[in-house]
Every structure is written in C-alpha cells, then in structure tokens.
Amino acid sequence: MTTTFERLRAWAKNIKRDIYAVYFAARDKRTPWYAKALAFIVAAYALSPIDLIPDFIPIIGYLDDIILVPLGILLVVRMIPPDLIAEHRQTAAAMADRPTSRGAAIAIVILWICVAAFTLWLFLSSR
Question: Quick one: where is this thing mainly located (predicted)?
Fold first, then answer.
C-alpha cells in the first residue's frame, strides 16, 4: 500500500519530468505554434529561479509552485499531440539523472533581469 507521502513524491517527480518535456516540446518543429508559445512561457517560469510570489512568504509563497506550474503544464500537455508529448516525456525521463547546469541558471537570471529592465525602460519612456 502506498502512503500519501509516496504518492506526492511520485507526483512531484512527474511534474519535474513534464517541465522538461514541455521545454523540449517548445523547441520541437512539430509542436503547434500556440502550444509552443505557452510551453515556452510555462517552462521558463517553472525553471526560473525567480517566482511570481517569492517563496519566503509563508504559505502563499509556494502556491504558485503548487498551483500555477502544474496547471500550466496540464494545459500545455493537452495542446500537444499525445505521441509527441510521450516522446518528449521519454527524453525528459532519460535526462533526469544528468547533472544540472549553473551556466543555464545564470543565463535564465540574466534573461529575467533584461526583461525586467526593458519593461521598466518602456514604462519610464512612455511618460
């Protein structure tokens, strides 16, 4: 009999796998453009170290991670053809044991800083 903790752990592992599968689908030519656009946004948000609601805020800090990311993944997975998402899930599962890249994390942080700076510049220049 599985415990609740084991089920939650398996769910979290599947979410992590699907984040990478969605990222791979966003880069695939066979993915419809609308699914590709949403997949890129969901994967960028899920893999980004910057959250909509900072995690240090008690309880609600983790709500975006617990609610927004899984819902975004669910929506994207439904937009992608089943055989294509199955292929990307296999690729993501195979990559689960690979080491993480600090360079990619730095690149994502720099990208978010650039987007924030550009948004601020647009806001200030429109005045």
Answer: membrane
Q: Name the CA dihedral angle for 49, 37, 65, 63, rounded to a multiple of 10 degrees.
A: 120
Give backbone dihedrals phi and psi of 62, rounded to 5 degrees, phi first: -100, -5
**How many domains is the chain built from?**
2
Sequence-separated (6 or more) residues with CB below 8 Å from residue 23: 39, 40, 43, 47
Which range marks the domain in which residue 41 is found?
4-96
The pair of three-digit structure tokens given for residue 39, joined into one six-digit string: 């997949």
Return the C-alpha torsion angle 62, 88, 26, 64, nearest 10: -10
Q: Say whether both 117 and 88 belong to one domain.
A: no
Tell me which residue has tokens 């927004």: 68
pLDDT in tens, 35-62: 999 988 888 887 777 776 777 777 777 7
Q: Indicate yes or no: pTM above 0.70.
A: no
Whether residues 82 and 115 share a domain: the answer is: no
